[in-house]
Amino acid sequence: xxxxxxxxxxxxxxxxxxxxxxxxxxxxxxxxxxxxxxxxxxxxxxxxxxxxxxxxxxxxxxxxxxxxxxxxxxxxxxxxxxxxxxxxxxxxxxxxxxxxxxxxxxxxxxxxxxxxxxxxxxxxxxxxxxxxxxxxxxxxxxxxxxxxxxxxxxxxxxxxxxxxxxxxxxxxxxxxxxxxxxxxxxxxxxxxxxxxxxxxxxxxxxxxxxxxxxxxxxxxxxxxxxxxxxxxxxxxxxxxxxxxxxxxxxxxxxxxxxxxxxxxxxxxxxxxxxxxxxxxxxxxxxxxxxxxxxxxxxxxxxxxxxxxxxxxxxxxxxxxxxxxxxxxxxxxxxxxxxxxxxxxxxxxxxxxxxxxxxxxxxxxxxxxxxxxxxxxxxxxxxxxxxxxxxxxxxxxxxxxxxxxxxxxxxxxxxxxxxxxxxxxxxxxxxxxxxxxxxxxxxxxxxxxxxxxxxxxxxxxxxxxxxxxxxxxxxxxxxxxxxxxxxxxxxxxxxxxxxxxxxxxxxxxxxxxxxxxxxxxxxxx
Length: 524
Description:
The protein is an alpha+beta fold. The chain has helices at about 5-30, 70-85, 115-120, 125-135, 135-155, 190-260, 265-300, 320-330, 335-355, 395-460, 465-495, 515-520, and strands spanning about 125, 165-170, 180-185, 310, 360-370, 375-385. Helix 9 runs antiparallel to helix 10 (about 395-460).
């Protein structure tokens, strides 16, 4: 698929930037982290497709047309306007056209996106997801926090360095000087250093789950902003299509008024309808611009020019068992997995604090020569700190409280997930039944009403305004169908993203450092 030079440049720059940052992060993590958690599988993007069909629009001239023929050409003129306006769209359902007005139906919003997608190369959801995973700074930020925790993990397990030195005694007394070289070493007891690493192991696991959670947040935001922009793009195109019909309606109404076949209220009604359609088009363009800016921001390419989006706004709407969905979310959510890792970290820290009161062994070994006796000599010193006044009771109590807090955080997240799921389930189910009702009932009936109204108008049974009302009803039905599709897509994206969003929010940094090693070597 061929892209514009600007697009390739943006992606290339982002990729080059991440080659430096991400490879370093991955290498450091691989060196320092023994067992990273399994990566949660992100849901795949919707497959895209595009199709187009075109129908030539006939040119109907009203100049020099006798007033007696207005009724004959009015319906034909609207047919041509509709055919020119819906070029490139597809029918939602096949409904036999009216024999009196063949091909005179306004078709609903196509399932394969707007007509630009079928004739122009544009951006697909899969492409934008890949761009976001490579360029969104929050993912790199979360990865840096995991590498940071991995560095602390390595540091807290380092054995203390020995001290070496020289000691001389009676140097001013000739023939009795003593010269000694010594090595001083602190012997860490009770496997404190290994216990330190166990604490930081769980912190690294927690940070790696935070990286996975951030990936979900970014993907959720990209998908929702993509569908928001795609829906606005389709509303804009639908308004542009219908605007042609509304403009033709104004023209016909004015000609009817001049020929004394119509009235001023008819002209005003058509002008009101045209202004409303133009307002919808303008608002859709504003919504598209806002959604596009949000999309490229979360994708990490803020200077990319607007491009057509290729994809289907209609997503799957299968019925879901929400109890099973909740259990799957609780078991697979990376945010909850990160919280559970912090519980394991708190347990490991309790084990670590329990042995802190066991004193380390301080050793000093020296060897030298005594010139007074002409003999070599070796000295050995050992000592420990007596845990009389400080038995680490405060840290043990704090570790127990941290465990309680971490366990309740898991519980809080599970309840929060249940509450969020209730809202998302309501939006999903409501949008699903709305989409189904529009597809099976409302749109076909609106189309049939339009066809019958035009047929009745051609037979002289309906007035001009009744046809306009039928056309506007069909247009409004398509707009509401578009809104329902957007709501359904947003809800599905949130569910597929484990209810995680906020791809540009600040990521959770590690709360640990190398303090455990300092505590280990303090002897207190």
